[in-house]
Write a structure and sequence with these properties.
The complex is a heterodimer. Chain A is of the alpha+beta class. Chain A is built from 14 helices and 18 strands. The chains are: A alpha+beta, B alpha/beta.
């Protein structure tokens, strides 16, 4: 006979969801599930549309990372039309994309992830929000985040179209070159962003790493999974957000696979469970053995922690130093602690900022040669980028006129979905004992998946339902045993 | 300072488009007295949108399951769910206001939210459901009226004696 604890909706994320925790007679957790509604019907919606419209259409899927979809779609068009953009176009795309990564990572670190760890895991509820973060790190930091974000978004708007709906990606290149004046602004903004990144790392050291309670939480078994990790790397196995080959390392950190975007479907399959709309990605070469970690389970992870694990090094010096500090703090690579992803995110922020600066200083960046006109008949294309939340893939098939016959997106969170389920289950089992759960414990279960910053099919905008969190504990007869209201 | 009319929503996702469509319909009529903005962003990402405005009206979809689809609920900022630790990526308007205040960024002193109960905000390309489509006209009317009411008040208080 089991009872159910329900957490609904989930806080501080894109979208809504519910966590069901099933508690058995002995008072321990039988299993815990994460259920999130996702956007449906994309395949049908895309059919018959012009493939060349997809980068702009898909940028509207999600208000959080339109640039990621725009770029994945653009690269898919390159593949679809069998066209190679000129070098300057690729550099501009990468520079603008790195700008987006800095901006998004900054927002996430301070406003989304921050409340979980900057104020301390057992801080009172009233402080576990952005105001608590500001209280802890200071007003100037909060203002700095807003200022940096604005500067970067203004640059993206000039280079790529509206920051919320980029339009510059085309098959074979981009719509307009970067002027020397705009280039100079990118140079300045990149330098500013690098300083901001270094500063954020220092905040992390001072406020988080010095908090022994938090460090214990990060390294605790409840938040640790020994899975495979996947990320895009360049020809020297260094992280690259815009392009490269996908590399998978095993739970020991050894290279297991590398493949190009077009071979993704040969190596990754999807598993379906009745209790969730989400399709759980897993490695075909290992196989599905349930929601488990370890070398015999095909469960893998993407996003900042996974990317650092999947690469051998960072491509820029300050980020590389930060990465070395990261790994040595945890005693080597790979790092399996889910909550460490917040720190990994900052290392990536610095890397993206440095890379932005390198590209802005490249003599070719303001070249007028930014487009190769496609001449081939379109057939099928797959494009991959590393979105802030992980590997993102677009896949289009068209007729000879370039009208979509089939389209599929594999969003970052699908790649992480199995590991997220594992995390919720494991955290609930370790932390929830009996029906006498308090809010702090429930928050710790939520922390398990907030670290992934999941966006679950790029959720909708609807205001959350009026009623705040209600946890209902019922017995098998459906009788309400206990109700916990979080309001 | 101008009034902000903010239509929030995902234009591609069924009923979730309603806020965006209402804003779009209002822009020709209101553009000389208000900043009419459409956005799919939410939560903290909107902090810059609100800054620089004294008054704001927000139009958005809501799923409570407690009202018939198409029902319009009007709320002041303080009534917008003290939704527990609201999603910072999501609406979280009261928290947004608090953060803006704390950072000295400026936030409208008067904010009204018009939330319309929707059927399906999750299906791509679905278009508005009938009940929600039926509410659009009233939403447009109410937003327009509120903007004009505020304009009139502002004019009255600045008219020299």
């Amino acid at each position: 006979m089991s009872s159910e604890i329900l957490i609904d909706p989930i806080t501080r994320l894109e979208g809504h969801g519910r966590i069901h925790i099933f508690v058995n007679d002995e008072g321990s957790v039988d299993h815990a599930y994460l259920q999130i509604p996702e956007l449906r019907g994309f395949e049908k919606f895309a059919q018959g549309r012009r493939a060349e419209d997809m980068p702009q259409i898909t940028s509207r899927i999600c208000g959080v990372c339109p640039m990621a979809h725009h770029m994945a779609g653009t690269k898919t068009l390159d593949d679809l039309y069998h066209v190679d953009p000129p070098p300057a176009a690729k550099k501009v795309r990468e520079m603008v994309y790195d700008t987006f990564m800095v901006e998004d990572h900054a927002l996430h670190f301070f406003f989304l992830g921050g409340p979980d760890f900057v104020v301390g895991p057992t801080a009172p509820k009233a402080e576990r929000n952005i105001l608590g973060v500001i209280g802890k790190v200071g007003l100037e930091v909060g203002k700095e985040v807003i200022g940096v974000r604005k500067e970067l978004r203004d640059l993206m708007t000039e280079a790529a179209g509206k920051a919320i709906h980029p339009v510059f990606g085309l098959p074979g290149g981009i719509s307009k070159p970067i002027s020397p004046e705009l280039r100079d602004r990118f140079v300045a903004a990149a330098a500013h962003a690098v300083e901001f990144g270094k500063f954020s790392l220092q905040v992390f050291r001072d406020v988080v790493l010095s908090n022994a309670e938090y460090v214990d939480l990060v390294t605790s078994e409840a938040y640790t999974h020994r899975t495979y990790y996947m990320g895009l790397v360049d020809e020297r196995n260094r992280t690259n957000f815009y392009d490269g080959r996908l590399r998978v390392v095993d739970p020991q950190g050894k290279e297991f696979l590398t493949f190009g975007a077009s071979e993704y479907l040969d190596h990754v399959a999807e598993h379906v469970e009745p209790w969730s709309y989400i399709k759980f990605a897993y490695l075909k070469d290992v196989g599905w053995s349930g929601f488990a970690d370890g070398p015999d389970s095909g469960v893998f992870a993407v996003a900042p922690l996974a990317r650092l694990n999947a690469a051998d090094a960072m491509s820029t010096p300050v980020a590389q130093e930060a990465s070395e500090e990261f790994f040595s703090t945890f005693g080597g690579r790979p790092v399996h602690h889910t909550l460490a992803t917040h720190w990994a995110r900052l290392v990536e922020l610095v890397n993206a900022a440095e890379r932005m600066g390198e590209l802005a200083a490249d003599p070719e960046i303001a070249s007028p040669e930014v487009r190769t006109i496609p001449t081939e008949i379109p057939t099928e294309g797959i494009g991959v980028v590393e979105a802030p939340r992980g590997t993102l893939i677009h896949h289009y098939e068209t007729d000879e006129r370039g009208l979509i016959t089939r389209a599929n997106l594999i969003v970052a969170t699908q790649n992480n979905a199995a590991r997220i389920a594992l995390s919720v289950d494991k955290a609930a089992k370790a932390l929830v004992h009996g029906l006498d759960v308090d809010e702090g414990l429930l928050n710790e279960v939520e922390m398990a998946f907030r670290a992934y910053d999941p966006c679950f099919g790029c959720a909708t905008h609807s205001l959350p339902g009026e009623m705040p969190l209600i946890v209902e504990i019922r017995d098998l007869r459906g009788e309400l045993v206990r109700e916990i209201r979080r309001d | 300072m101008r009034t902000l009319v903010l239509g929030l929503g995902n234009e591609l996702a069924g009923d979730d488009a309603v806020g965006v469509l209402v804003a779009r319909a209002l822009r020709p009529e209101l553009h000389d007295v208000a900043d009419v903005v459409e956005s799919a962003a939410s939560g903290l990402a909107l902090i810059e949108v609100f800054a620089g405005h004294e008054r704001a009206i927000v139009v958005d979809s809501i799923v409570t399951g407690r009202n018939p689809p198409g029902t319009i609920t009007e709320m002041g900022l303080e009534e917008v769910g003290r939704v527990v630790a609201p999603s910072l990526h999501h609406a979280g308007l009261p928290e947004l206001a608090a953060v803006a205040a704390r950072l000295g960024l400026g936030f409208p002193s008067r904010t009204r939210v018009l939330a319309v109960e929707v059927v399906d905000p999750y299906t791509f390309g679905a278009g508005l459901s009938d009940p929600v489509a039926g509410a659009v006209e009233e939403l447009i009317r109410r937003v327009g009226e509120q903007v004009r009411r505020w304009e009139t008040e502002a004019a009255c208080t600045t008219t020299p004696p």
